[in-house]
Amino acid sequence: MKILLTGGNGQLGRCLQDRFPADWQISVTTSSDLDIGDAAAVERAVLAFQPDAIINAAAYTAVDKAESEPENSARVNSAGPENLARAARLIGARLVHVSTDYVFDGTAQRPYQETDNTSPVCVYGRTKLEGEKRVQELLPDAVILRTAWVFSEYGSNFVKTMLRLGEQRDALSIVSDQLGCPTYAGDIAQAIIVLLQQSAAGGIYHYCGDQQATWYDFAEQIFIQATQQGRLAKAPQLTAINTEAFPTPAQRPAYSVLDCSKVQHYGVKLSDWQKALSAVVAES
Ligand SMILES: NC(=O)c1ccc[n+]([C@@H]2O[C@H](COP(=O)([O-])OP(=O)(O)OC[C@H]3O[C@@H](n4cnc5c(N)ncnc54)[C@H](OP(=O)(O)O)[C@@H]3O)[C@@H](O)[C@H]2O)c1
Fold it and tell me: Which InterPro entries does the record associate with it (predicted)?
């Protein structure tokens, strides 16, 4: 299979490169050689390589910064996927586009299904939702994979931030009233590969970790791993705080657990994030 990958330097982009089957032909692009917000550049790259599928791992992921840079966020998260969908349609290629749990407002009482109403509460979520809609309009055959709370051995993420802060401070306050599902980027990469191998039907799919947690729970697990592995001599003292005590420019959904039943029909395994966390802490 011929794959054009965007966002090759991101967490997911790098995990995909580690996992692609050896007989797949991959054209890896990064933000410096293919800006997905540039429609003409996207079309040129797609026409030149003639991929069977495009995987969009590129995104504007700075959730707080997006509040003051809505145009940049929209250019990458809304226009970017639109440009990729247009180019894919030109040559009859498939598109796998990655989206987010932040398309929801977090008021649900049970895990979100793919068909539930969306109502993002921040610029990042709104621009990602717009990207989904443009992809669906142009290319109903596209696979849109919504995921959440992504971490890996690459780039910057909550695990790396906690490990850094744990080295610098004796005590940390962590938000304990937002509930979601941590997800290892390597498992998302594997899920995408399986969906392409299985020629999954177009549509939205949810994919995240197999156990829910608050940021506080997640931090606790990180420090358990870090001390058990000797990465930290002593875990910092953790204090659970409410979202109001940790104001951020972007509002986040209080609850963003995703119901992942649909994707499991293709034999995709949910992310065993606790197992992955142990390896990520060891490698970080
Ligand atoms: N991280 C999370 O917690 C999370 C949660 C839910 C969903 N997601 C979704 O999961 C997907 C993968 O996220 P990730 O964590 O792997 O993100 P990431 O590590 O931030 O990587 C995103 C990549 O996109 C690239 N990029 C930014 N603007 C671009 C542009 N105009 N053209 C081409 N590339 C561009 C970035 O390049 P530069 O480094 O050069 O800017 C970066 O390498 C995204 O769709 C994201 O929205 C992530």
Answer: dTDP_dehydrorham_reduct, NAD(P)-bd_dom_sf, RmlD-like-bd
CA-proximal residue: ligand 1, atom 13 (nearest):
12
What does the pLDDT look like over 15-67, one tens digit per residue?
999 999 999 999 999 999 999 999 999 999 999 999 999 999 999 999 999 99
Q: Which atom of ligand 1 is the closest one to the Cα of 62?
A: 20
Q: CA torsion, points 139, 72, 182, 15, in degrees to nearest 10? A: 70
Residue 97: closest CA among 3, 190, 26, 192:
192
2-157+183-209+257-271 has which CATH code? 3.40.50.720
Alpha-helix runs per DSSP H in the chain: 11-19, 39-49, 70-74, 80-91, 123-138, 158-168, 185-197, 215-228, 261-264, 273-283
CA 8 – ligand 1 centroid, Å? 9
CB 16 within 8 A of CB 189: yes
Please name the residue whose Cα sits nearest to atom 33 of ligand 1.
Answer: 31
Pocket lining: 9 vs ligand 1, CB cutoff 6 Å? yes
Annotated active-site residue 205? The verdict is no
Q: Which of 124, 154, 184, 207 is catalytic?
A: 124
| Cβ–Cβ < 8 Å for 184, 280 | yes
